[in-house]
Amino acid sequence: MPGLTFGLNVGLSGLKAAQNGLNVVGHNIANVNTPGYSRQRVGLSATPNQLFGNLFYGSGATATNVEGIRDRFLELQILQTFSAKSGMDTRYQTVEGISSAFEVSGESSLGSLVQKFFQGFQDLAARPEDVALRRSVVGTAQSMVTGLQDRYTLLAEQRSQANTGVGILTQEINGLLDQIASLNERIGTEVVDGSDNDSRDQRKALTDKLAGLVGIHAFEASDGSYTIMLDSGAAPLLVGKNAFHLSVTPDPLNFNYNQVNVDLGSAATLDVTRQISGGELGGRLDLRDNILAGYMRQLDQLAAGIQSTVNLQHRTGFALDGVTTGLDFFQGGVPNGANGLSPAILPGAFYAGAVNALTVNAAIVSNPSLIAAAGAAGAPGDNTNARALSNLQFTGATVDTNGDGLGDSGPFSTVIASLVSSIGTQASGLQSNASTQERLLSGLQNQRERISGVDLDEEAANLITFQRAYQASARFLSVIDQLTDQLVNQFGR
């Protein structure tokens, strides 16, 4: 049978096991308010038994590991949801910010400015020889052009800000990737697999932050390291301790905007601009390349439609002198072909820049008598063309929306209402989606907190359990000590 010395070792192992448990409980309690902390649990097992005579005797207990309590599948869901929410928030904030410039009604609304322009021709039809009314037509035309250009400038500025944000975000993403790679390397040096829980918590917090910037998928390999991919699967961002940085270069199709690349090493890069949809970076790219660009395209189409249809009708009329004819009312970047429209302004972007190029004919501005209100030569008091110009506001198929050079949408009020409505509807949809993602994220985070968070009641119970175990082991050692003392002092004489 084992001797008293063997009992001392058994008692000492119990003390150590209980002490390890107390340390873990204390660490949990100390981090109860630490963001991203996952509670830890000590793993205990019996030490190998030993044979004495014909019997095996247990030799005590030992702490085998300290495990962080996490749900990997839940963590992946949180990353994806956080990324989607961040992207929706980014889109919504910008669209909501510009929606006030596209109000439905009001004196300065786009629809009102266009309506006042055509109303000016209607007023002129009542007194075609009135120079003051002719000046009023020029003034309403200039106000309409200014209104279009102000809104176009707002969209262009927001688009430029989104592009600037792309460059800034790539730098932040690269910094996070470097930190996560460093933690991967540190975790790779742990003696016992899964024991460096605090490093894992730091890595999880950094990965959450990374998911807010760009859509990702994260996988934990068998060695404990993270592999991080773009959520589209287009390219890796991190494998072990190797981070693949993002870089920006001018877009070959539009040097004003940045193209996003993944640097794969050995001078190899991969363009992933269109493969990024999640996170703030995905939101900014979508705003720049799709949402804001789409609104700008609709304004260009509207300006091109107004210019071409008004010019076509204006050229058929005669100025106040009864002689001058064939004059364009507007000047700008849209060529006036046989059908009045030509999409070939910029390759791949029909009517691009039409708004900023649009101006009232300088000759008409300086001499409003050149407005062709008459429909026949030598008839200064004729109002036929003025009425025809006024009626253009009610004419359909005046705006080319598909780039074939033919009007397919209209009247102008309908096109404007569609643009204003699309902005409001998109803002509302983005807000709804962001709210949905927020609720989903909150639910997932609450679930993670229930699994991984520190429960003080549970820790208090564990504290008592390990305290009693420590006290019992100490008492066991005291008994062994007394027996040893009796054996030495009473029987050893």
Overall description:
With 493 residues, this protein is α+β, with helices and mostly antiparallel strands. The protein has three domains: 4-69 and 454-490; 74-94 and 166-278, no CATH class; 97-157 and 290-428, no CATH class. It is 56% helix and 13% strand. It has eleven helices and 13 strands. It has helices at residues 4-30, 72-99, 110-126, 131-187, 197-213, 279-314, 354-357, 362-366, 384-391, 412-452, 456-490; strands at 40-46, 50-52, 55-57, 61-68, 216-220, 226-230, 236-239, 242-243, 246-251, 254-265, 268-271, 330-331, 359-360. A four-stranded antiparallel beta sheet has the order 5-6-7-8. A three-stranded antiparallel beta sheet has the order 9-10-11, with helices on one face. Strand 5 (216-220) and strand 6 form a beta hairpin. Helix 2 (72-99) packs parallel to helix 6 (279-314). The longest helix is centred in the N-terminal third of the chain and has 57 residues, at 131-187. The two termini are 24 Å apart. The model is unreliable at 343-348 (pLDDT under 50).
Name a few traits of the molecule.
rod-shaped, 493 residues, alpha+beta, 13 strands, three-stranded antiparallel β-sheet, 3 domains
